[in-house]
Queue: 4 jobs
Job 1
Amino acid sequence: MVQNYEGQSLLRPLQKFSKRTGQGGWQLTVRNPGGSTIAVRDARQPNWRLIVPVFGNYEWRFTDLETDPHEQALLLSYDYKANLRSVEAKFGSSDAAMWVEEAAAVTRGWTDDNYKRWRYTARSTCIQTIH
């Protein structure tokens, strides 16, 4: 069972990034029982959240909880690159867009690892579009 454990201990302080690699403290959450979307957050940017579609016809969603705490002005798109462009347009800098790219790549790596771990042979349809 220990080999299947993911995440950080709730008894220790949250690590914002790896001191060895600098990579963020990513949190990934399967959003529904069907596993069709994954919510992605990073402890370095706790106000940003990306919803990544894995299967089916679901939207990419980016939220900045600092400027939109009730998520009423989501950036939505059925296309990854269109969502990325809307993030760049709204925030006027590449920081948020670079974060979205990193979040999508981390999510793809996480899903690929889980496919291998659970010997699941079907391929994700939406997550493949990020590269």
Job 2
Amino acid sequence: MMNELDLLKKDWNKQTKPFPQLQESDIAAMIHKRSSSIVKWILIISILEVTLWTAISLFFNTDEVMVKNHTEYMIPYFKIITYVNYAVVAAFIYAFYVNYKNISTLRSTKKLMQDILKTRRTVKYYVWYNLIMIGLSAIAGFVLAFVANPQMQKISHNPKAMVITIIILVVFLLAFFGIAALFYYLIYGTLMKRLFRNYNELKKIDL
């Protein structure tokens, strides 16, 4: 089913005369509304994502695990990394909020196009930051488990078992990273495609 913008564009293309300014304004206003809605969803999803990860972390007491594995000396470092990570994510969420407020404010077509590009860059940096942090966290977890786990220490004396264990860990890590990347691609990637489609429509009007 065609949406309102597609119907307007279809009717617009039937015109043999130059496009009336009213029609251009109508389409620009509709694109503005859709762009604002997309950025609002980016903001909402990022907040829900942080809430989900925070809730999951409450069910896993990493401090107890480290104490059990005799790696409690790493607890202060992990706390610092956690606080820094939350600060960075909070900064991204604030940037999403600013982008949403900017796009929600009715401005010129050119300004809206600039805000859309800025939002896409912010989302791109946010996704890459999260993927890098997920990868580093997984690697750190595997290294700690490998170093502290008595079973792993026994395996280290068996070269064949050591190679098999490393291969399994690498495959698991790649699978975990792939699932995370797929999640971000499906959620944020889809929204970014829609936002960039709006940008291209605005570009046609601005020409």
Job 3
Amino acid sequence: MRGADDALVRRALNERDPLPGTAGFAGEIDGRLVRDVLGRQPLFSEREDPSVWSFDHRDLTDPVAVPSGQSRPTTGDDAGRAEQVWTLPAPDVATDAEEALAQVRAAVFESVDSVDDDGLAVAFSGGVDSAVVASGVPDAPCYVAGFEGSHDIAAARDAAGAMDRDLRVVELTHEAIERAVPEIVAALGRTNPMDVQIVLPLYLLAERVAADGYDRLAVGQGADELFGGYAKVAKAPNDPRVEAETVRGAAREMILTLPDQLERDVLTLRAAGVEPVAPLLHDRVVEAALPLPDELLVADGRRKVALREAAKPVLPESVAEADKKAVQYGTYASRELDRLARQAGFKRRMENHVQQYVESLVE
């Protein structure tokens, strides 16, 4: 079992408690494969033989992911028959904004302050998410990746200066991208360009972290989903990319995408040689975020309101309020992967030209 001890997982199973106080777990217990409600630990089994399983799909011949929140017997007549044990709670909306904000502040800083900094580095983009994580481990070095001139490098330099933190820049190159893409595809089992673009800078940053002697990487994953960080959430219900009629409903839609995203991110970081640490995805933070009303998620175009307000006593205001771009755009990974594809003859008029380029590198 990864992420929790057996006794805690047994209790969560018996009580069907989806948020039992962990940062995620997965593995085998009492003849069953289990994976937590947000899929924070990837888990796979053989399609036809659930008794054969692994945390890495590359160890298996015909792997399938165990869906989040499920329990699957590994032997006997019920082998492979899934049971949905845990589902994401749907608490009533908080009516006391001050109390809701206090709950977020307590949960976030209990989580980040409890991170052990032994062998730890921080993935630092200069946004409020990674800055909050970095605040809990003041002696850990911060790393940012990107092409020179990119938004993320500039933002990270500004934030590190404001916070008086050591910042190490991992400058991306075309040669590094061409080398890394096949390694990423192998780790993920995916050639989807968006997935590859998102994890490219993360993979190359994590490689540098591992080369520098650190084996754990603290990340801000989960903050955008939990606290309303996406433009499509802010625009709900008028954005066709979400089905919800409210900002809060749209944020919940994003939270439900986490299992697939986290499988991608965790497998990438492990392939690069580090173990991810994601304090903002601890159960206590999830529990505090779920009841937030619309106005503590998005207000007057300002996203992640509750997280920014919670961070203000700890971070410089310029950092707590910093805008953030999606990593594939903020690092120029998306732009430069597209450039490489076109240079290799995969023009934009061609269908899925970047994916064709990715597949050509794998071949």
Job 4
Amino acid sequence: MSLLQAIFLGIVQGVTEFLPVSSSGHLAIFQNIFDMKTDGGLLFDVCLHIGTLAAVFIVYWKDIFKMIREFFRMCGDIIRNVKIFYRNRRYDEALRYHRIIHNNYRKFVLLVLVSTIPTGIIGVMGKDLISFASTTLIVPGVCLLLTGLLLLVADHCKDGKKIPKDISYSNGFLIGIAQGLATLPGLSRSGTTIAACLLSGFDRRFAVKYSFIMSIPAVLGAAVLELKDIGSETISGGLVTNCVVGAIVSGVVGYICIRTMLVVVRKKNFKGFSIYCFAAGLVAIIAHFIV
């Protein structure tokens, strides 16, 4: 793989990870129609994901920092409550327990954890199905049409007002299912999850924030699963350079695309992306019967 290819793949990763056009759908179409091999190796793939994760951390670093802080404070309160439980049992006392979820960031942490559960289950159980779906054009084509439809629905959703304290855990679980289903090639992860958030009545800005922050554990989990196979790859100086450049490019482009999505969602302007997904989906379906 050349440096120019690394830059190109970094741009593709940064754009399709955050804009609602489905990276997996486009890769499946390129591979099936043009016989393009866009896989740059496991290490390179992991580095691209690290780049886009860095973009999420840069845009939402204040929220992520507070969530991490509140997560450890929650763990501390749970430990203290366990001690209180045993003390009450042993000495027949009635000490009051600490309230675990008492602010928006603690609720946000728990909602993301709840969403991650169905995503992980679907990702693991549907791994073979997802791999098979990528070898044909009909599945990405149909899923791109569904993405276009979801984006139209998102554009016409009433403005919600829900922030973490107003959101139920069942909402978080259903959005996690949506993220898990979006592993199918052609279903945009960001488009599907943002649409699910808006249909659940989320505040528009929080819907984007929730969609991108909830992707962190999913992307990290996928990267960790890939890391175990990296040892079989030959690591050269050229590969390291490509990895670094690709990660930087995907991070910079991803940062721009996250900022773009904030504007798109706020102004209810998914129409252009929807038309593009319809067009790409139709091309894929037609190509399925021609190629």
